[in-house]
Batch of 2 targets.
Target 1
Amino acid sequence: MSTATAVPSDTQDQAVAGAFRGYLDRVRGGDVGSLPAVLGFVALVIFFSAMRPDSFASTRNAANLLNQAAPVIFIAMGLIFVLLLGEIDLAAGYTSGVGAAVLVVLLTEHGVAWPLAVLACVATGLVIGTVMGALVARLQIPSFVVTLAWFLGLQGVLLLVVGEGGTISLSDETILSILNKNLSPALGWVLSLLVVGGYAAGAFLGSARRRRAGLPVVSPAVIGLKVAGLAAIMVAVTLVFNAERAVNPAIRSLRGIPLIVPVTLVFLLVLTFLLGRTGFGRHVYAVGGNPEAARRAGINVPMVKIACFAIGSMMAAFAGILFASYSNGVSPTTGGSSTLLYAVGAAVIGGTSLFGGKGRVIDAILGGLVVAVIQNGLPLITQKSGIQFIVTGAVLLLAASVDALSRRRAASTGQ
Amino acid sequence: MTEDPAPVLRLRGINKSFGAVHVLKDVGLDAWAGKVTALVGDNGAGKSTFVKGIAGIYGFDSGEYLFEGRPVSVSHPKQAAELGIEVVYQDLALCDNLDVVQNMFLGREIRSGLTLDENSMERRAEETLRGLSVRTLKSVRQKVSSLSGGQRQTVAIAKAVLWNSKVVILDEPTAALGVAQTEQVLSLVRRLADNGLAVVLISHNMNDVLQVADSVCALYLGRTAAQVDAGSTSTTQIVELITSGRSGDLGLPPTLAQEAVA
């Protein structure tokens, strides 16, 4: 609550301690946020690094892990919007498959320029999402049923377009580079500087604006600590990825932050802005929290729902581009099997509630990294894919239990 | 009956039927600025139907709806809100996952360009709460899920008065509250009127009514039994108006009161 600019250092210490105590209280009260995901990520990385120090804990694998995680993270970022409503989109996996098919067919078989192909791919997602959203919001069919039908239908579409057992390969350099190229080490440092500088500027300017408006502000010491923490993470990440990771550097050097990192950061920024700073975002949370209250407040609830499904499917279609980039093409199983479950798992592990009204876009990234570490690390320990499914299922169940328990705790402590 | 300044809200001869059921028969109500008008009546007397009509959830079949002396037509909640009539329903319609400021401005957010103007909203919410002398809230950035029943009621009422409204209708605001919280909410109701609003308080609870109401309008089986001055009427008389539609020479003529039962 300190509003003065020059606060003596002992009050600054108190402010930091107070902020920390407030955070602990929130966690104890059931508002755990992304804490389980962060702890889980750290624990898993330590575990796999100890088990497989040379294969898992290599910078090469770290870069591969990010590229592996990207499609699921993008689907999950879109799913957050649907989950915030308290709805589900089971078709998101195959939406990405169909998006990939549209992209690859246009690029490979019709020679369309890549920007147009990307646009067509995202437009496909828009159409799929709008129709699903309209069925849920206007006809009030449960989203589970609507998207289950689309899950089956889109799987069929993908099979017809790609052909049974076939694959269509992709040779477009631009699309392939998204998950195969890296920033130059210098650009990596520029990116880190932008991230830390941008965060610091946003936090301090926002705080200054609140002070001018005469509102209580967070102590500068607390903001400073957060900025320092982010800076430490960014420096560590940049150092790791800027190290040489080629098997034979003399032939072809392999260094730098993967290109997918800045791409993901841009989406994170735009979608977080949409949810946190705009009227639309506020209405999404309201509809997820209490649809009746939202309706009485004059919010067009069906439109909000349709928009969320549309955003979810567009993000899934974009994830299809990443699938195509990662596997150099599209096959009838692109976006299939457990893709959707991994994406839902990522969102829930990250701290987004399946009950609606609670979640952030960054949850998808944190949870997606946890899922990717399991997917990446387990095969290095055991060849049995059965065990991998069981472990991933167990982690998802654990995350859903944390969600449900924190809700109960929140209800009983009134947080 | 008080005949001092003209009422902000005056309804006369209101009728409303749902199919064959004639729910409101020639009902009337006056509400004055700066006064608390209690709307009382037994279950099924038509209180809710009456209030929903005033709020524009549905239109009345016939009757006069006068706002500040002008006849108005209200058939949609937006129209009522534009006139400055706000209703706080019993279920409060708050989003648990949003904070106090976000709830107060829900659907009517202040924007600057693309973004929400959080600072202006927070300041106005603070001002409104301060204007109502609300001191029970720790922070306006608390989530509603962390508030007690009385605090939630306070937020819902503050939300209703935020928009320079002239008439605030409160549907059973103390029904789910404990003794201390009931006191808090009732004193808030009193302050609303003292700030110059016309308050209509729907209540079952005679204690609440006697404590804060200036005027009492009793409904009896879909008719207005009488609207009386709270100061010059005894509890017994009000209870009789509620239970039998008449009390001495107050209320419905004996024939009508009998007919209503039949």
Target 2
Amino acid sequence: MSMLQRQRQGSASVLYDIPGPRTRTRYRLFGVLALLGIAGLLWYAVSALADNGQFDADLWDPFQYNFVQQMIVDGLLSTLKAFGLAGAFSLALGALLASGTLSDHGPVRWVCTAIVQFFRAMPLLILIVALYYAFFAKDPMWALVLGLTLYNGSVQAEIIRSGVNAVPRGQGEAAYALGMRKTQVMSTILVPQAVRSMLPSMIGQLVVTLKDTSLGYIITYNELLFMGKKIASQPMNAAGFPYIPVVLVIAPIYIALCLLLTALARWIEARGRRGANRRTSAAA
Amino acid sequence: MGFLFEQDNFALFRDGFLQTIELSALSALLALLLGTLLAAFRVSPVPVLRAFGTTWVTLFRNTPLTLLFFAVTFGLPPLGVHFSHLTFAVLALGGYTASFVCEVIRSGINTVPLGQAEAARSLGMNFFQTLSLVILPQATRTVLGPMSSVFIALPRNSAIAGAFSVGELYSAQQTFSERGYSIFSIFFWVACAYLLISATVASLFRFLESRLAVAR
């Protein structure tokens, strides 16, 4: 049981006793002080923004125009397109590289391990920019997608590999004892179990992929953040550059998308655990 | 490959390299301090602080780092906050990494056996004593592994700062590209520099792990 669950249930936590009346009063005092402190910080931030005129209607005016709204939707669609392509390709590349690093043939294993280690150690931005200048100067989307695929594919390969290694040894040995080939053992016994246990981590890496599509901003790919910059750098009226409004509009979109994916991972994890429990209870 | 040793290219590359290290080190320091504080918030008995820690982590972990750099670089100057580009980058990168550090420390705290904290409390220690004298020293050991991946990722993420006017390795790469040198040789040298940094951080953590290892 995790500590948070324990706290939610109101029973004793690992770190502190169940509070008595005086401690409860003290905690309440701390709570009020902390609340005042946080409220003060928030108030300071909001009033600094307001004093600066960041909440003036004029500055938010651009968002009323249809073409600006269309730009945001287009940016979101480009982000999702790059994410979809990079996510699918990176899973495919990850599976390929993972089977390479688990291969029985030395040279295949060495080459795949070297590829995985190299791309994991490389800053994604450097990779994407190099691809952009070298091959895709006219089409930044493919530089972004290819860079994301190489980096995230390597990470996915490591996740899948550690998942396969974490399957109990008896599973593979039993399959070999039944006379299965290595390919059969892998594809029918080890990989299905590995994917099941590793799915949350794989989706976690997809969240990273989604966040990293914003690197497209730097190579002028028309994704959400780049569109935001476009909107912010062309003031429509005398109110000035709406950089802060743009951030306040775009950040929640990214956060919502990531939280959706994370929720999916949690749901799958919960489902997997339920299934595993059912199986063990049936076996016992 | 030899272009690095022509004209003043090496000086530019060296400055970029040092700037990357400076930026990474400062951000790592900020992330470590802020992350530990946030982790303490997240396990504290005061619900308001717990909520604050959770909100921070949710917001910063799910925001793209590029967007954070964008917000800090373009959002703060209009509010009258004028720091150097390096300071802005440290704020963005440190705040972002702090949320990951917080989660690593929190999961480390959860792995310390229950009896340890119970023993500490039965000796009459309060929350802060339990945390600082008993739980955190033990959590540090289990945390080193996941922490090393956070701090290996940090210098790699710092490359984004180069796109926001910090003169580090990425901007050195940009300048070399503009001077018309071959992309591949530029990429080779920049890749070497980053591999060197990651390898150094990784071996530092391996050293710490071997130093701190105890039989339990």
